[in-house]
Amino acid sequence: MKTKLLLSFAFALLFGTTNYAQQKSNNDIKKLISSYKKDIRGPYYRIKWYCKDGSVRDSKDPCPDSIGGGIQHASFKESALDLRKTNHLFFGEILASLNNQDFLDSENNYSRLKQYQLGKYLASIDDGWVLKKGQYYRGSVQSEDEEAWGKQFFETILKDDSLVNNNYYLVRQALKDIPHNGDSNIAQQMRSESKVLAEEIPEFMDIRIKIHGNPEKTDIYLVESFIKKNTSKINSKEKKIFDKLLQTMQEFYAPLNYKTIANEISKIKDKNNVLSSLNDFLNEDKSNLSAKDIVIKITENLDFLRYNITLFNNSKDRLALLDLTNQLEKILLIETQKWQPVTLEETILKTQTLTCASYATGLIEAWEFDLIKPIYVTTLLNDKITLKDLNSLVTSARRIVEWSTSLVKANYQETVNKYADFESFAYGFIDDRIRNSVTLNLGETVSKLNTFASDISNVNNNVMNISNQGAIRGLNPGYAFGKLIVVDGNPENIEVNTNNIYIFQKPPSDLKPVAGIMTVSEGNLVSHVQLLARNLGIPNAALSSDNLKSLEKYANKNVFYAVSNKGNVILKLENDMSDEEQKLFHKKERTKNMITVPTDKLRLDVSKIINMKDVKASDSGILCGPKAANLGELKNLFPNKVVDGIIIPFGVFKSHMNKEMPSKNKTYWQFLNETFNKATQLKKENVSEDEIEKFVLASLKELHTAILNIDLDASFIKDLKSNFSSVFGDNLGNVPVFLRSDTNMEDLKEFTGAGLNLTLFNILNEEKIINGIKQVWASAYSERSFKWRQKYLLNPENVYPSILIIPSVDVDYSGVMITKGINEGAENDLTVAFSRGAGGAVDGQSAETRLITDNSSFLLSPARQPDYIRLPATGNTKKYYTTFNKPILNYNNINEIRELASEIREKIGKQNDDNHAYDVEFGFKDDKLWLFQIRPFVENKQAKSSDYLNAISPKTDSNKEIKLKEKI
User: How many Cα atoms sit within 13 Å of 834 on the Cβ side?
Assistant: First the structure.
């Protein structure tokens, strides 16, 4: 899919990324990988000596003792070294001799370290991957040198308190992959070996699924039984893999030697008496402890170790303790599977414990855990719970699963996406990490809790009879019929079809209109895609990664999909639809909400630049679009919160469209109108809608290209320069600005149009501003923009773009406020989503989302976007990376947001004499609030009032009380 960078990301070339030489294409990289797999040396060239003085010698010429000696390992082929320079890709990495900081690669969000981890995973599931034959190249890698390097690497980086505290999850994961004490990532090895066998022997798939999804020690017996039953069918190669798998499983489930660990821990200097509880646990007799007892005790110690790890000043001590946390986590994962709660109370206790374990192992941050913890504590102090409070607790617990999963993705998704472009196996890496964490069993426990609550609430999903449907919940009501498309990988290159229903891990930021959407995790409630879906009544639901994989077998089949107003979800095959469901798709039903945008009031005679402060909301659709008109209104109402601005009105656009189009012997405007007249004629001739759309889109593409090359009038440019200087206090080219598209077909009471057309970020250069004006005009005729408009509007061809030009504000963080609760909360609450840097929340980022009431601020989801952009005074944008160890919005910000919402309701709501909710974009710079945009918040009334959706919405008694001792 060609990315149309809308409100938050203008052009990929603007991003401040590392400059590499001419990058190799994905096809070139695939060919290299293929050649490495076939080469007996893989990416390696020959064995060399690497001396302490920095010199490199041939294999038969050892480093002399006089220069400190050295180590021996393989050198790399020129092609592998070139790949590092051109694409920042590191295949077959050898650690010995590396510079610590080069490998850590903090400037690139630890990319090289993460690539090493991903490379180890690929090697485990693909027989060595690029080292398929090279892994047998004698002397290429010396394990003792790799371990020695790993030990000094960790002892060096763990001196950094900030690194340990802010990247706790990444550090602990790196300890599992980088050799430093003889350990290996046994859990990953066990899953990889079972995966290889399942691909060779389809009958083994059920056991492989069990090992991946619900691992227990009894799986050893399952594997042994399978071997015994199928001995005659298993060849010698497969027998070796089975033997290796059984050995790995025996090692994984071997009991932890607590006494040996206690002896090692006793060597650590513990001035703060932090380890007293840990030592008590390590030394106590565990023969009478239940799985529940062990899980709780290990979790308490993991919690305590994470909280106090930086109290230990010696990095060697930190390394020993962090290694211990990985050993304890391994036992935790085994014992957690054994703990099978019987009552509601015990299930809540287990959920509480695993939520704590999520924090203790780095999957959520301390401040996030502190917000959730009181919910469990308060509940377990009582002997009863209302259905309303139980559903609220389930929602909170489900969020922890999502926050944990999204933290793993935040750490690794960028690296996985980079590799997935040339190696599809890379997609499995994140799933493997999640399965080797408490998130797996926490998700199962929460699903069990949700099923119990759903049965009482009568809120039951009906999704193809797949398992664990408790993880599925509706976000936006609506219904749809179409072909089901399941996208498990990167969606950016997927060409979507308007009539299909899509299931994404994460939807693309420039998604074109579709019939229905399901996404893994809730995502950003106020992104442009989400707001458009809500506006058009497109059904939208969240599901788990496991749910997505379960639905893959229904891909490319016609399905019916519905989300009720209460959030229950139906997904069924076409043949299973009821008569009532089939009647929903009569043409009359699907078109009754289409509207016509009036054009009779347009003032196309106004063809001079307008000062933004001279327009009001009432000028929307007359002189300019609603962005400029509403911001002009805000400038008058909130003069200290809104920047100055200038407007290129509709009339300037129209005067240029009246010019002759090159090689056409007609004006641009005539070409546009003839296109739509021809489309109308084709419709009368019963030409298919698909063929008509192809014709229109081809013509619009031609028009789009022509507008990009249109000659701007000299008088207009002179007017632009004059107004730029008078309003912004400096010449064109000296003040970085935003160019924001602002058409007559957006921010309407019935149609939002959020993010459909181009916004250019922080443009400084005069030529880029001039060309940017043409780019913004042309964006109104892009495929995505047209398709969304025609989904709701009867006259999408009558689009008139104006342009709002405002100076850039290099905000610390920015986002969106909806002046009502969405999915949760009441009409007078606020739904707020914020991301770091500019363009926050609108483009689908994993934003910090809150429900703000008069006296509280409830976290719906923390930010999980690892990167953000800032707006330097020199123009363009610069990319940075962040961690998640503290919230984005502070206490004062939240109070100021409440005050802003109150003022908007008072000044704008009463002025318009309606109770409309508003969609407000704004940001904070040094804790000062800046307003950027306001528009009506538009929901689909048809979906909300649908008889069918109301009929499938369950009736519940939220005050019903349930005893905590009740069996679950």
Answer: 23
| Cα separation, 115 vs 412, whole angstroms | 9
For 904, residues 6+ apart whose C-beta sits below 8 A from its C-beta are: 819, 918, 920, 934
Q: How far apart are CA 847 and CA 923, in angstroms?
A: 13
CA 41/CA 755 separation, integer angstroms: 51
Q: Are 837 and 809 in contact (CB under 8 A)?
A: no
pLDDT value, residue 213: 63
Torsion of CA 901, 902, 903, 904, to 10 degrees: 50
Please tell me the total number of residues recorded for the chain in this structure. Answer: 968
Q: At what angle do helices 78-87 and 26-38 cross, to 10 degrees?
A: 150
Look at residue 610 and give its three-state secondary structure.
Answer: strand
* pLDDT tens-digit series, residues 45-102: 999 999 999 999 999 999 999 999 999 999 999 999 999 999 999 999 999 989 999 9
As a whole number of angstroms, the distance between CA 744 and CA 572 comes to 39
Give pTM, 2 decimals: 0.83
Contact (Cβ atoms closer than 8 angstroms) between residue 366 and residue 165: no
Angle of CA points 123, 128, 129, to nearest 5°: 75
Percentage of the residues of the chain whose pLDDT score is greater than 90:
64
Nearest to 603 by CA among 566, 675, 653, 670: 653
pLDDT at 911: 61
The yes-or-no verdict on residue 752 having pLDDT over 60 is no
DSSP E strands: which ranges in 655-705?
660-661, 666-667
Local structure of 570: helix, strand or coil: strand
Do the beta carbons of residue 69 and residue 63 sit within 8 Å? yes
Q: Span 704-725, mean pLDDT?
A: 96
pLDDT of 17 reads 43
175-181: average pLDDT: 92
Q: Helices H, strands E: what count in the chain?
A: 34, 28
